[in-house]
Design a protein that fits this description.
Elements: E1 2-8, E2 13-19, E3 25-29, H1 36-45, E4 49-54, H2 66-73, E5 76-80, E6 90-92, E7 98-100, E8 103-109, E9 118-122, E10 125-129, H3 147-158, E11 166-169, E12 179-180, H4 181-187, H5 197-205, H6 215-222, H7 241-245
Parallel strand pairs: 3-4, 4-5, 5-6, 10-11
Antiparallel strand pairs: 1-2, 2-3, 7-8, 8-9, 9-10, 11-12
């Protein structure tokens, strides 16, 4: 299996490239429109053909590259069934493995950050999206977020994976790349150790985070698999620069 972890600095998003050496097919997890050319160049360098883009959820901080990748290279769009994205070619469901060549992802419905959020388990690693970050977790105050649901998702599903499972999140803001389930059980200040549901509720209720500056454009755009509005303010145009410059867009 070919594996690459790629970073988009504007939204601090990790995109994951998984390639099947036998078939030459590849999957991109959480691709970002601003980094589409980089991802396509890496696929070409590795001699891979993109079969699917896969998102963990409807993102609020960037535009997915799913639709533009489909236009450019013919890749299919896979999305969590629970997010009810009408433009998806394939709806992912918990309990139904998703296979591309020798790559087999096991979808896990992990609501809380969003109601339809999914993580994807694959061999010795899990791609946790925003449900579980390195020593943190995604916020729960928009997109049908629910602190109780997130607590159960992490403690009952993700923490139930083997301790040596590698944790690859959708974001990190401190130059960290990977964790493990054991490390998060021990060191995650919000969900680790013996944190109770009541303690987690209080932590999440008192984060006092600012309103996401791109959410009002990203969420409707990502419900269409990656469309930027025509009226995007000038100070936010960098989020869709790749799309506005693309002859396909």
């Amino acid at each position: 299996m070919i594996f690459r972890q790629l970073f988009e600095p504007l939204s601090s998003t990790y995109t994951y490239l998984l390639g099947c050496e036998e078939t030459g097919q590849a999957v991109l997890i959480d691709p970002v429109i601003a980094s589409m050319d980089r991802d396509l160049t890496e696929l070409q360098r590795l001699g891979l053909t993109l079969a699917y883009s896969v998102d963990t959820h409807v993102h609020a901080d960037h535009i997915t590259a799913a639709l533009e990748l489909k236009k450019k290279v013919g890749s299919q769009i896979a999305a969590p069934a629970a997010e009810q994205v009408p433009c998806a070619d394939f709806n992912l469901e918990e309990g139904k493995p998703f296979q591309v060549g020798t790559i087999v992802l096991h979808p896990l419905h992990t609501p809380g950050h969003t109601s339809g959020h999914f993580a994807y388990s694959f061999n010795d690693r899990v791609f946790t999206g925003d449900a579980l970050l390195i020593e943190g977790c995604g916020r729960t105050d928009f997109q049908q977020g629910d602190a109780d649901a997130l607590y159960r998702s992490v403690r009952e599903k993700l923490f139930a994976l083997p301790d040596d499972t590698l944790v690859y999140p959708a974001h990190d803001y401190k130059d960290r790349y990977v964790s493990t389930i054991a490390q998060e059980k021990k060191r995650n200040p919000r969900l680790g150790q013996e944190k109770t549901l009541e303690e987690f509720r209080e932590i999440m209720a008192n984060l006092n985070l600012p309103y996401p500056k791109f959410i009002d454009y990203a969420v409707p755009g990502n419900k269409q698999c990656g469309v930027c509005p025509c009226d995007l303010p000038e100070n936010l145009e960098k989020y869709c620069q790749q799309m506005t410059e693309s002859p396909q867009g």
